[in-house]
Amino acid sequence: MEVINALGRRKAAVARVYVKEGSGKIVINKKELAAYFPSSLLQFVVKQPLATLGVEEKYDIYVNLKGGGFKGQSEAARLGIARALVKINAEDKAALRAQGFMTRDPRTVERKKPGQPKARKRFQFSKR
């Protein structure tokens, strides 16, 4: 099997995911999963699509992550892995979609507007 690649995004994070058959090793930015995401919760988020399909030990996954914070990065990796698994086997798409792993979360930070300190916050109003 050749290498399958997919892209996952969340907030400001972009994950390029490369999946090939192997022993279940996950490498993110040239580090092991546990070294890159010390939090077990974030490790769980990254592994969710694999656990749903029961293929944790079947594929080696290499992820190139850029931008965003650790939560956005973990969810971007999850989307990329789910998309790559669907490229490998299209019948898995229904199971992954039911869990919500195939949907790109469109919520991002709202831009700052001119004449305001933040996106929605206003400077104090003085009547006189």
From TrEMBL:
Residues 114-128 have a biased composition (Basic residues). GO terms for biological process: translation. It holds the Pfam family Ribosomal_S9. GO terms for cellular component: cytosolic small ribosomal subunit. GO terms for molecular function: RNA binding; structural constituent of ribosome. SUPFAM superfamilies: Ribosomal protein S5 domain 2-like. Residues 102-128 are annotated as: Disordered. The keyword Ribosomal protein applies. Keywords: Ribonucleoprotein, Ribosomal protein. InterPro entries: Ribosomal_Su5_D2-typ_SF, Ribosomal_uS9, Ribosomal_uS9_bac/plastid, Ribosomal_uS9_CS, Ribsml_uS5_D2-typ_fold_subgr. Residues 104-113 have a biased composition (Basic and acidic residues). NCBIfam families: PRK00132.1. PANTHER family: RIBOSOMAL PROTEIN S9, SMALL RIBOSOMAL SUBUNIT PROTEIN US9M. Belongs to the universal ribosomal protein uS9 family. This is Small ribosomal subunit protein uS9. It comes from Porphyromonas cangingivalis. The gene is rpsI.
